[in-house]
Amino acid sequence: MAQQRRMGGQPMFIMSEDSQRTQGRDAQSSNIMAGKAVAEAVRTTLGPRGMDKMLVDSGGEVVITNDGATILNEMDIEHPAAQMIVEVADSQEEEVGDGTTTAAVIAGNLLGEAEDLIEQDVHATTIVEGYHEASEIALEAITEQVNEADVDDEILKQVGKSSMTGKGTGGLTAESLAETVVEAIRHVETDAGVARDNVTVHTQIGASSNATELVPGIVLDEEPSHDSMPQAVEDASIAVLDVELGVRTGDIDAEYAIDSIDQLNTAIDAEESEVRGYAEEVAESGADVVFTTEDVDDRVSSYLAGEGILVFENIGNSDARDIVSATGARRVGALEDLEEADFGAADRIRAENFGDDDLAFIEGGAAAETVTVFVRGGTEHVVDELERAIGDALDVVATALASGEVVPGAGATEIAIADKIREEAAGIEGRKQLAVTAFADAIDIVPRTLAANTGQDPIDALVDLRAAHESEGRAGLITTGEDVTIADPFEHGVVDPADVKREAIESATEAATMIVRIDDVIAAE
C-alpha cells in the first residue's frame, strides 16, 4: 500500500505501493533481533576451544573456518542491521587483523541489553549516551591493564600464539608458527615502523604443514620459458621487461607473395637474424635472469638457455610490480633501452616444481626487504585456514610491535573493563546509569562464552573470575590441554595487543548505538 499524506483535502502519494515500512518498537525489535542473530552465529567459535563452521555456498564450494570475519562474509546476510554487524567484523579485521569474533559478539550483546532497556521505557537516546560514556570508561580500563614490560620477541611470540590458539594450524603448533610470524615481522621492521605489507603469505598444497617456511623474498606462480634453463641462479642480476622477445608482427592483416625458394630462404634468414638479435641483445646486457610481461619465442628461449640465462615469460602486471618492488629493478619497455642501471638484485632465484605447479623463488639481496611465509598443507581446506590464521597473527604481532602495548587475554581484560564500568556507574545520575551498567553486562559475554566453550558453567566461572580479579588484579580462564584454571594470563603467555581490545569496544559500540537509534525502516521492493 502506498504511503500518503493529505494536502488541501487531496491525498499525496510519497512512496511507491511496493514500499514496506516498519516503525517504532517493531523496527527496533527487528533490527536488534537481526544483530543478535549474527553475533550468535559466531559466538561458539570464540576462544581456544572454539568450534569451526562449515559454510557451503550455492555452488557447493566449502569453507571451514572459525575466523569471525570470514564466517560473516561467507554467510548470505541480507538484513541491513545484520549487515552492520558484519561491517563491525570487517572494520576489526582491516584495522588490527584479529578480534573479529569478540567485536561481533560484544555488538550483539550490547543490542540485547539495549532491547531490555527499551522494554523498560528507557529512551534510545539515553541508551546511546550511556553506551558512549561506558565505552570511554572501557578504554581507560584497557590502558590500565597494559603490561609495563617492554614488548620483546618473547611477548610477540605470545601474542602470535594467543591469536592462533584454537584455529586450524594443521600439524604445526601455534607456538612454532608464532616463531615464524615474529621472525617475519622483525624482518620488515624499520626506523619508520613496521612495513606489514612487505610480508606476504603464499600457500601450496602437497606437503605436510610442517614444511611451512619463511622465505626471505617473494614467491611467484611462474615457470622457466625453457626446460633447459638453469633451475637456480646465484647472485642474480634481474631484468624486468615489457618486451616481446620474438618476431615482430604488425597490427595490419597483410599477406606477402613469395615466388622462389631464394625469397623464402631470405625471409627465413631475416626472421632468424631478428630472433637471434633479440637473444644476443639480452645476453650482452649482462642480465642473468629475465622476467617479461610478453611472449618469448621458443628460439630465443633456446638460445638464452644455452647462455645459462633464466627467463620467465607472460608474467602478470602485479607480479612485475612485486619483482620491481622487491629487487629494485626498473621496468623497461624497449630492449634497446636496457642497461645495467635497470637491473635488480637477489642472492638467489630458483625454480621449483610442486606437482602440477611451478614456482619461482626470489631470495635475499634487495629482495630480502620482502618476506614470504610459504605455507604448506595436505589439502586446500588446511592451507586456507592456515593462511587465515597466519595472516591474523602477522597483523596482531605487527600491531603489538608498533604500539608497544599488550594486555592480558583469556577474558581478563573484559573482566577488568566490566568491573571498572560498574564502579564508575555508581556516580552517574538518572536512567543513563542503567545503560552504563548494561554495557558492563554486555562485556561479560566474552568471559561467559570462553567458559561455555571450554565446558565450564558460565555463571560459576564469571563469579570466580570476578573474585580473583578483586583479590589478584588480573584473572583469566587459562586452558591447558583438558584443564581450565583461573590465573594471571601474563604468567601463562596469553596476551593480546591493547589496540585489538580498543578497536573491538569502539566498533561494537558504534554499530550498536547506530542500530538502537533506528525507529523507522523503509524498504523498497
UniProtKB/TrEMBL annotation:
Gene Ontology molecular function: ATP binding; ATP hydrolysis activity; ATP-dependent protein folding chaperone; unfolded protein binding
Pfam families, per database record: Cpn60_TCP1
UniProt superkingdom: Archaea
Keywords: ATP-binding, Chaperone, Nucleotide-binding
Family (UniProt): Belongs to the TCP-1 chaperonin family.
Name under which the protein is recorded: Thermosome subunit
Organism of derivation: Natronorubrum thiooxidans
